[in-house]
Amino acid sequence: MKEPDVNVVAPTLFNELHWNYWKTKVFVSAMQLGVFTQLTEGPADSTTLADRLGLSERTAPDFLDCLVAMGLLRRDAGVYTNTEESAQYFDRGTSHTYLGDVMLTEAGHLGNDLTAALRAERSREGASSAREFYDNTYADADRTASFQRAMTAMSYESGAALADRLPWGRYRTFVDVGCAEGAVGVHLLRAHPHLNGIGFDLPGARAGFEKYTAAHGLADRAVFQGGDFLRQPLPAADVVIFGHVLHNWDLDVKLHLLGQAHAALPPGGLVVVYEALIDDDRERNVVGLLLSLMMHLSLPGGFDYTPADCAEWLRETGFTDIRAEHLAGAEAMVVGCK
Fold first, then answer.
1. Using an 8 Å Cβ cutoff, are 172 and 195 in contact?
2. Burial of 13 (0-12, 13-18, 19+ CB in 10 A)
3. pLDDT in tens, 163-186
4. Helices 100-109 & 141-165 angle (0-180, nearest 10)
5. Domain limits of the chain?
6. DSSP class of residue 281?
7. Three-class SS of residue 95?
8. O-methyltransferase dimerisation domain location, by residue (predicted)?
9. What's the predicted TM-score (pTM) here?
């Protein structure tokens, strides 16, 4: 029987997703094998690296050249070296900037069990689960440092954009809520010498914050204040910043935090909410949707949201002159005025 005529559409999206999946697998394997750490000991050819890493000499050249094609290694006359970015972020010896443990943790956390997790009935424990996550994270120095570095990586480009996108000349002080190492504040303070900033976070974040801000010569203008925003007021400032904070919590806590911001601000002060906001049509910003999925699976009660959602919450908590604006990459901000 003759097959019916159909309009054949190129499987472009399948191919893109298929190869992105394999790129991620190659990168995770490189992290697990310690490729980038080995290369800090010196340049090496394929045979030498295969011997150091315990790889098959037959498969090693293709594997290493994949890393070259992905921009993670350089190869010159058959000899491999790290790129600047790989040396800084993927060498286990660079404890102050190493991000590999973040990727490996995520790869082993839900990656193999996503389908099972999506099918499972999960209790909605709300803020208590997020509180437990942060209490556990900040109780351990190594986990704290790893988490803070990850937050710096996620916030770096948005922090630079924030320094340019707001009328900072009208304001003198800011508080960065959930500041981690203080990377956003560093961007603001370096760009605007008249500003002074407060980093507000759980007490366990103090050491990382003070080390990071001191390394940038800003210890005199960046002050750490330890506390729990579920139990005490936010510090008073002209601008209150929530970066990658609200999505961790359920709606009641989101509204509570925005109310806290309103109380901390003077008339005319600003609240700034930024993260990988889901586009209002929920059709384009896949990173925002992926992060929301991660929140649902790892922090019951947490979820990401659209600019329209955030604007509604800001109005509900007393803010006016609300606007949304793209920052960098997948990230955007919503700004409200008291």
1. yes
2. exposed
3. 999 999 999 999 999 999 999 999
4. 110
5. 12-109, 127-337
6. T
7. coil
8. 20-89
9. 0.80
Where do we find the tokens 């929140």?
A: 295
- The pair of three-digit structure tokens given for residue 11, joined into one six-digit string: 């499987």
Among residues 247, 256, 262, 296, the one annotated as catalytic is 247
Residue type, 151: M
Active site residue 18: no
pLDDT, tens digit, 9 for 90 and up, residues 227-240: 999 999 999 999 99
Question: Is there a contact between 185 and 211 (Cβ–Cβ < 8 Å)?
Answer: no
| Rounded Cα distance, 60 and 49, in Å | 8
Token pair for 179: 């500041």
- The Cα–Cα gap between 308 and 313 comes to 9
At which residue do the structure tokens 């919590």 appear?
A: 249
CB atoms within 10 A of CB 52: 15
Instruction: Considering the domain delimited by 127-337, tell me its CATH architecture.
Output: 3-Layer(aba) Sandwich (3.40)
* CA 28, chain centre distance (Å): 18
How many residues would you count in the chain?
338
